[in-house]
Design goal:
By secondary structure, the chain is of the alpha/beta class. The protein is 31% helix and 26% strand. The chain has 13 helices and 23 strands. It has a four-stranded mixed sheet. β16 and β17 form a beta hairpin. α1 packs parallel to α3 and α2 runs parallel beside α3. It binds shikimate-3-phosphate. Shikimate-3-phosphate binds next to α5.
């Protein structure tokens, strides 16, 4: 699918976003192994979270929608059954990595794989700790999907994550639910803590002390009524659009503002962004609020260290923003970008070149000079949702019509992206 993006005079109005992708995956997986029904409002409409639901259905979980509410009948910790065929995680790294933690403990064998992009993503990072816990996992070339997981009774471990990854942390904590004692995970830097909050919400025993998380085995998880906050990583595209398109004023309602995700807002404010947060509340431990954004003159900035981990999904659209700042943007410590849905350093670089924008890249980062003009061009998603959306936003600031090839990739996290964009871009 090709989308044509016209330059916008301004971005105005109010938008509501589909539920947070990260939180949706976790709620669905925990609901399936809890006891009793869960009712989840504002579950992500993205294909990735749909893949999680299909995998859970394939293991016997009853998943249905009642109007806008997703209902999952929990089967209890030991109630899943062997899937008849290979579980399909589609494009979703979260599905395969997090669900593997549960699969590793089942008294059955399962296979889980996905599309071509997922099949190139490294799984050694989950295979290592799960093997240490006693699971047996075969992977293509030892580390790529599909994974064949022979579930086993699991041993509790103490594990130091070699890379900052909330998916890997989640995988181990989910496996820890089934272990024979307390499982301990140490993170190198703080990553998103939706798993910790969700586990508590469902009734698991978990403590967090700095970068160390301890989970008690075999809790009685109970089904819940939950509401998924709007996805801040999806909001990022509209926030950047409103900041760089002149005379814009936008409100995004009901967005997740979990402090382990909201570094985005602090970073943008440090660049001079006119952003206000209003109507803050809390649901199941997750902060939620409305965000008001106005066009702003932005200085440049540096993203490195722990900040890179906190902003990892937002870097493609922040690179676009960087070109519109006064002094530009530097991103360091971002080797992880190369193993996302695409090599995001390479795909950002290619689209920058097509739009006549300067960029320098390194194995683990990039440097975008500021004060640049966006030239209308034909860009490509390369099959990556965040690349499709980032360069559609760039198109709003370009000097003519921008053509985005492979725009359907946006539906992996945000199927309503183009209709929402059209509704606010004038
Ligand atoms: C996610 C963690 C991050 C992020 C991904 C979602 C999560 O991945 O990029 O989009 O929900 O835990 P890593 O764990 O690989 O850093």
């Amino acid at each position: 699918m090709t989308e044509r993006i016209k330059p916008a005079r301004c971005v105005r109005g109010a938008v509501q976003l589909p539920g947070d992708k990260s939180i949706s995956h976790r709620y669905a997986m925990l609901a399936a192994i809890a006891e009793g029904p869960s009712r989840i409002r504002n579950y992500s409409t993205g294909a990735d979270c749909g893949s999680t639901l299909e995998c859970l259905r394939a293991m016997g979980a009853e998943v249905r929608t009642e109007g806008e509410i997703l209902c999952i009948e929990g089967r209890g910790l030991d109630g899943l059954r062997a899937p008849a065929t290979m579980l399909d995680a589609g494009n979703s790294g979260s599905t395969i990595r997090m669900l593997s933690g549960i699969l590793a403990a089942q008294p059955f064998q399962s296979r889980i794989g996905g599309d071509e992009s997922l099949s190139r993503r490294p799984m050694g990072r989950i295979i290592r700790p799960l093997s240490e816990m006693g699971a047996e996992i075969d992977a293509r070339e030892g580390q790529y999907p599909p994974l064949e997981i022979h579930g086993r009774p699991l041993r509790a471990i103490e594990y130091r994550l070699p890379v900052a990854s909330a998916q890997v942390k989640t995988c181990i904590l989910f496996a820890g639910l089934y272990a024979d004692g307390e499982t301990v995970v140490h993170e190198p830097v703080r990553t998103r803590d939706h798993t910790e909050l969700a586990l508590r919400a469902f009734g698991a025993g978990l403590t967090v002390d700095g970068l160390t998380i301890r989970i008690q085995p075999r809790p009685r998880l109970r089904g819940r009524e939950l509401r998924v906050p709007g996805d801040l990583s999806s909001a990022a595209f509209f926030i950047v659009a409103a900041l760089i398109v002149p005379e814009s004023e936008l409100v995004i309602e009901g967005v997740g503002l979990n402090p382990t995700r909201s570094a985005l807002l602090d970073f943008l404010v440090s660049l001079g962004a006119g952003i206000r947060v209003l109507n803050v509340s809390e649901t199941a431990g997750e902060r939620v609020g409305d965000i008001e954004i106005r066009t702003s003159r932005l200085k440049g900035g540096i993203i490195e260290g722990a900040l890179t981990a906190a902003l990892i999904d937002e870097i493609p659209v922040l690179a676009v923003l960087g070109a519109a700042t006064e002094e530009g943007l530097v991103v360091r410590d971002a080797a992880e970008l190369r193993i996302k849905e695409t090599d995001r350093i390479a795909t950002v670089e290619e689209n920058f070149r097509r739009m006549g924008l300067a960029i320098e890249t390194a194995p683990d980062g990039l440097r975008v000079p500021g004060g640049q003009k966006f030239r209308a061009a034909e860009v490509d998603s390369f099959g990556d949702h965040r690349i499709a959306m980032a360069f559609s936003v760039a198109g709003l600031a370009a000097d003519g019509e921008t053509v985005v090839h492979g725009a359907e990739a946006a539906s992996v996290s945000f199927p309503e992206f183009y209709s929402s964009l059209r509704a606010i871009a004038e």
